[in-house]
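Closing statement on the zinc ion sub-project.
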Amino acid sequence: MTTLAATLLAALPAHGLAGFLDEDGVIVHPEAVAPDVALKGEHVLIGSYAPMGERTPERAVLGASAYRHVGGVDFETLEELHRGSGDAPLAEEVARAVEAAARWFARPLPWGSRVLRASDQRFGTITGYSEDRGMVITWDRAIRPEPHRYTRAELTAPGFQVFVPVTHCSGCGHAVDDDEIEDSYTTCCNEGACTCALVNGAYECGTEAPTGDE
Ligand SMILES: [Zn+2]
Ligand SMILES: [Zn+2]
């Protein structure tokens, strides 16, 4: 008997991915990342209303979302990657969900993301990409950028934390867009605009890239 979980797991290696069955569905991660490391970092969960451990149904609606471990048993949803409509045959639906996961893992992290390296508590900024999708990090106070290109798997494993930068008003605290800032002051409060890291839904001032004039 082939189960839905087995069908999903069998579709992963062709995309350089691996996975395992968890209570909520199939946890998907790059082949090069160990399962326990994947659970403590970024991973994709493919779930379904159809039972994963029973005979593969003819049709199933699959959902795939990217998650990040934020401590203990808590996970933060990063992005919904796929939501099936129920109109596709199972093989096609499985392919769509797995391809969505593969695209997520192949995508570089956003330019300007702040990276915290646990080994020395040093912050850096993603300032470039190389052709093989490696990411160049310029470490704060570094005299010149490190030549090492980091892969997405490296930066999303324990040992690194990645924060997507967000700009907010230091007066009222709301996130502001470029057109709500004039000469680095916000149009809502005429206070400084701070571009720092969004960590678990809260701004973490002090994580911003140092300005050149310090
Ligand atoms: Zn404001
Ligand atoms: Zn801030």
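The two ends are 65 Å apart (CA to CA). With this model delivered, the sub-project is considered complete and its resources will be redirected to Aim 3.
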